[in-house]
Amino acid sequence: MSQFDSLRSESPFQNKGQSGRILTNEELEKLQRDQTLVSDFKQNKLEKEAQKNWDLFYKRNTTKFFKDRHWTTREFEELKACRKFDAQRLVLLEAGCGVGNCIFPLLAEDANIFVYACDFSPRAVEFVQKNPLFCSERCKVFQCDLTTEDLQANIQADSVDVATLIFVLSAIHPDKMRLTLENIYRVLKPGGIVLFRDYGLYDHAMLRFKSGNKLGENFYVRQDGTRSFFFSRELLAELFTGVGFQSLVNEYVMRETVNKKEGLCVPRVFLQSKFRKPD
Ligand SMILES: C[S@@+](CC[C@H](N)C(=O)[O-])C[C@H]1O[C@@H](n2cnc3c(N)ncnc32)[C@H](O)[C@@H]1O
Fold first, then answer.
1. Does 124 contact ligand 1 (Cβ within 6 A)?
2. 3-state SS string over 182-216?
3. Residue pLDDT, tens place only, 261-271
4. Residue 151: CB within 6 Å of ligand 1?
5. The whole model's pTM is what?
6. What is the β-pairing status of strands 160-166 and 188-199?
7. Are 269 and 202 within 8 A, CB to CB?
């Protein structure tokens, strides 16, 4: 992962909308030139070692890599309105929770939520449990590979109000994204919502990959063996609706990120979406 993905200072200007980033001819040519794919042997190895590579990521970076994600508390404001009565306890699932940068701000802000959080990295799960804000009465954290292990081993079917999927689906092989969404679908209540945010097509991070890192269309591997997919809104909508979700919001968020260390201003593209399991 690069410094562009880690601690950064963001300018307040962002645009949201249906149309993605338009590349210059030079940028398009750069992407088109890069057609060499990583060998099948190496691709299989990366898939087998996905869990190990993320666990090593947390061994190296501990809890210091990602910032707390306060945008979820802003977005979650709207979702709190889905309570049928004021005292209703909302049940959340943070799928691929990392060290808890999403869940701890939410737990701090709303006393009346219960959070299930899971990740396939044992170290990440341990960091969540060791966080001073962790409270076993309000949070259950467990290890789970979303692509192979049924969430129902830890969560009742049809019981979750809101699932968050934040920069996680991009780390999963495209062939296994559907299985991941089906897994989440089963534990969501009818009417339950998925909050999604992840890398968008032509994000700056995608254009920075050097030749030799391409795994497939819009799919790349970083130096540390973790992988990243870059989503178009069309592909994401197809994935979610294919599993049975209804699309509520599905838009690009474009913002300029200032990298102070390098004195650069870079265009970031994210996809921010909400999908609903029908009643
Ligand atoms: C970029 S981090 C995001 C963490 C957290 N959602 C956040 O916003 O800070 C991606 C996380 O997805 C987890 N992950 C990737 N593939 C997974 C899988 N198949 N099952 C469970 N977790 C996975 C990784 O271990 C990592 O913690």
1. yes
2. HHHHHHEEEEEEEEEEEEECCCHHHHHCCCCCEEE
3. 777 888 999 99
4. no
5. 0.92
6. parallel
7. yes
